[in-house]
Amino acid sequence: MLNDSKASEENREPAGPIYEKVPVLNRFLAAAKPSAIYRVMDRVAARRASGAAVISLSAGEPDFDTPRHVCEAGIAAIRAGHTRYTQIAGMRALREAIAGKFQRENRLDVDWRDTLVCSGGKQVIFNALAATLNEDDEVIVPAPYWVSYPEIVQLCGAKTVYVPCGAQSGFKLTAEALDAAITPRTRWLILNSPSNPTGAVYSRVELQQLAQVLLAHPQVLVLSDDIYEHLIFDQLEFFTLAQVEPRLRERVLTMNGVSKAYAMTGWRIGFCTGPRWLIDAMEKLQGQQTSGASTISQHAALAALSGPQDFIEHSRKVFQRRRDLVVDQLNQAPGLRCEAPQGAFYAFASCEDLIGTTTRGGSFLKDDEAVANALLDETGVATVHGSAFGLGPYIRIAYALDDVSLRRACAAIQHFCHTLAR
Ligand code: GLU
């Protein structure tokens, strides 16, 4: 017996090949899609590695360097030995600065204990949804949407209820559409203003109208993703739901981060404020997950939030100028149509009139993904197809790039459109 079992031990295949053959993935993960944005970014990296020149309008991240005083704060933190864990929810000094930010910029009276620091905005969303969703719960996501919202809902085993919000409603959710989408199973609504991918911005009145509907449905929580708050153009004023309707405060999670406002995408710091029970639940989850955000990044984020704020206005002006440039140029490309977005750093251009044409390289453009692929393959300009964001046929152009590269990219797109054959 002993020998037999030894023999069977020896015959056992090593763990690697067995795991490759057996479907061991969690079923929610197995059904989730990888980020379409990162897929394009990977293709850009591969093309560059093979020596090809690419202008990437794919990833949404500011091209500026992180402000110097913020970097210095990170370096000083390392030098001072701030290289150990912080509290799970974040350093108290940073949480106080976050509470101060919500007070100063959003007129939300926030206790620092009602804030949470996470490793990027994505972790805020993941924590919030994973802490609250059960199977069969529904999350309302206005479409087009940032690609990761439905996938995070999927990872939590819940169901996304998409509400189409096309160009005719300015890509925004209306009160009527929200009302029609809510069911007894609705647990969350995700709002994102300024929006990725469209740049749409909700006015105070539009938020008030949504709030009226939400007040009638006390089971619905709201995630207000305000990450592009400071990138808002044409003298528009930014409003967030909890500010506009204080009666919703007890069920709104207001989230933000330093990534877009201070060009700190790689530092991975997101934060939020919401009802204490939700913050506590998210902290509990985070305590078994990452233990908290990087200490060094937290020191840098503290410097960003409490130091000089002129960087924000400077970059806002630059992005507004680039928006004007890109929208003007895109509208000169035959077959593309693009409204001027009011915020963020994305242009969402309709490519409907390109569908059904053939490129000089012989690619038939059957949909917006084919358009984005052919643009990359034949002109070296990387964009992300709109259908990845839940609305086609569009392409998303992230104009977080210097003017010279933007002009070159737009000229290449125009040339591409001019040379299509019907
Ligand atoms: N949020 C950015 C974008 O939409 C960065 C990529 C990501 O995290 O999805 O491009």
Automatic annotation (TrEMBL):
Keyword Transferase: yes
Cofactor dependency: pyridoxal 5'-phosphate
EC number from the UniProt entry: 2.6.1.-
InterPro entries (alphabetical): Aminotransferase_I/II_large, AspAT/PAT-like, NHTrfase_class1_PyrdxlP-BS, PyrdxlP-dep_Trfase, PyrdxlP-dep_Trfase_major, PyrdxlP-dep_Trfase_small
Record key words, sorted: Aminotransferase, Pyridoxal phosphate, Transferase
GO molecular function, one term: transaminase activity
Gene3D superfamilies for this protein: Aspartate Aminotransferase, domain 1 (3.90.1150.10), Type I PLP-dependent aspartate aminotransferase-like (Major domain) (3.40.640.10)
Domain of life: Bacteria
PROSITE patterns found in the cross-reference section: AA_TRANSFER_CLASS_1
Occurrences of domain Aminotransferase class I/classII large (ranges): 54-413
One GO term of the biological process aspect: amino acid metabolic process
PANTHER family noted in UniProt: ASPARTATE AMINOTRANSFERASE
Family classification: Belongs to the class-I pyridoxal-phosphate-dependent aminotransferase family.
Protein's recorded name: Aminotransferase
Organism whose genome encodes this protein: Paraburkholderia acidiphila
